[in-house]
Amino acid sequence: VMGGLAARTQMQAAARALDLTLTSRSKDGQGASIPMCGVPHHAADVYLAYSSLSEFIGKHESALRYSGLGLEALDAMAAPGMRTRLLRNRARAQTRLGKLDEARESLVQARLAADALIDPKLHAELALEAMPAATGSARRPFTSAHLAVLKTTPPDVVSFHFGLPAPDLVARVK
Q1: Is the pTM higher than 0.85?
Q2: DSSP secondary structure, 66-92, as one string
Q3: Beta carbons within 8 Å of 111's beta carbon, 6+ residues apart
């Protein structure tokens, strides 16, 4: 921003009034930092990646939180593909956490956002998410109930594909 002290003062006032982050870049000719304010336009991308990774490693509460932050970072009508994917991730996390009514609502919102898209793969992903949200069947963490079943007919190999269970359960499987 050019314009000296008056422009900086206006930017600081705008940042406070709009609850925006005030940051800076570089230095001006006198060595003072140049203030900037705004919302990073790539924030939703980052939150989508974090929610996907969190879901992949079984951190469903984190996936839910990051998908919500990503949705907050989007404008109401912007980026229907991004909105759809964030809503899909939110529905997955809600399903894994047993929040089935919320998951179904997230999927309805995702389908509405996806209507603006020609993306058969994304539409198929949404259709696949509907079954666990409707029935409550989703990957569940390995528990002592699973261990009891293993003990009745011990397999040669046990493989955990969706994250390791608690260390005491792993020790009991061995």
Answers
A1: no
A2: HHHHHHHHS-TTS-HHHHHHHHHHHHH
A3: 126
Q: What is the CA radius of gyration of the chain?
A: 23
Amino acid occupying residue 145: A
How far lies 172's CA from each of 141, 146, 158, in Å? Answer: 15, 11, 12
pLDDT in tens, 131-163: 777 776 655 667 788 788 778 777 788 777 656
pLDDT in tens, 45-74: 889 999 999 999 999 999 999 999 999 888
Q: Which of 145, 132, 138 is nearest to 162 (CA)?
A: 138
Query: How many whole angstroms separate alpha carbon 57 and alpha carbon 70?
Result: 19
Q: Residue 163: which region, alpha, beta or left (left: phi > 0; alpha: psi -120 to 50)?
A: left
